[in-house]
G10 protein (Paramecium octaurelia), 147 residues
Amino acid sequence: MPKIKTIRTKKAPEGWDLIEPTITEIGNQIRDVENQAYSDKKKPEQFWEIYKLHHQRSRYIYEMYYYKKEITRELYEFCLQEQYGDATLIAKWKKTGYEKLCCLHCISKSQHNFGGACICRVPKAKLEEGKLVQCKQCGCRGCASGD
């Protein structure tokens, strides 16, 4: 997870006031989740909510720039530079087949047996009928683009 910076190194570009409330709200939710007690959950499950919120914040920046076109390139690059969004995850979303990717752990070959991908990357049509699939790393229930 990227560090949350309290002091900006440079002034925010024009249009920051448009996305700042959403970015700070998600940042506050991440902080609240980090401060919760996790006595009843397994170790990997403790980070699932953080992964989900991190994905949500990166997806918001991505959609505001590429689909809605409501922010400028300068503001988009500022958000990535200040680590409000994950630049490598956004780069994967631009590629065919990775449009719904939940996190980079799911496609990392070193994280899985036999150099494969995560179970959540398998299209639901290829799985058994009624089988519930959930990634052990991030808690995703399916991020294959073919679904």
User: Anything to note?
Assistant: The chain has a mean pLDDT of 85. Residues 14 and 75 are 7 Å apart (CA to CA).
